[in-house]
Amino acid sequence: MARIKGVDIPDNKHICISLTYIYGIGQSLARQILETVKIDPATKTRDLKQEDLVKIRDEINKHLTEGDLRRDTNMNIKTKMEINSYQGSRHKKGLPVRGQRTNRNARTRKGKGKTVANKKKV
After folding, report:
1. Would you tell me which CATH number, out of the four given (1.10.10.200, 4.10.910.10, 1.10.150.450, 1.25.40.20), belongs to the domain 67-110?
2. Domain boundaries defined on the chain
3. Confidence of residue 42 (pLDDT cuts 50, 70, 90)
C-alpha cells in the first residue's frame, strides 16, 4: 500500500481514484497531477514504480492538502466566529451556514429533533 502525505492509498484502484483519498485532492486535481508527471490515470496503484510515486509526492507537495488545508479551513471558520459575521454566528449556533432553510430540514447541522411541549395537532 502506497503512502502519500500520511495517507494510505489503496493498491487495487486506479491511481486517479486512489489520489482522491487525500484530503484536498478531487478527481480533477488528481488528473491534473498525473498529467503533469506523465502517468496514465488508468494505471493501478500497485503497478507504479517507486520513481513514479516520488514524482507524484513532489507534485502533491506543491498543493495545499491534508493537515495544512484542514488547519487553514478551521482558522477561517474561527476568524468568522470572532468577528461575529453572519456565517460565524451560524457556525456558533450549529445551524446551516449557506442559506438553506431550517424549518423542515437541516437535521445534519441541528441534530436530533426536539419535541415541543403543548403543541396541538390541527
Report:
1. 4.10.910.10
2. 2-63, 67-110
3. very high
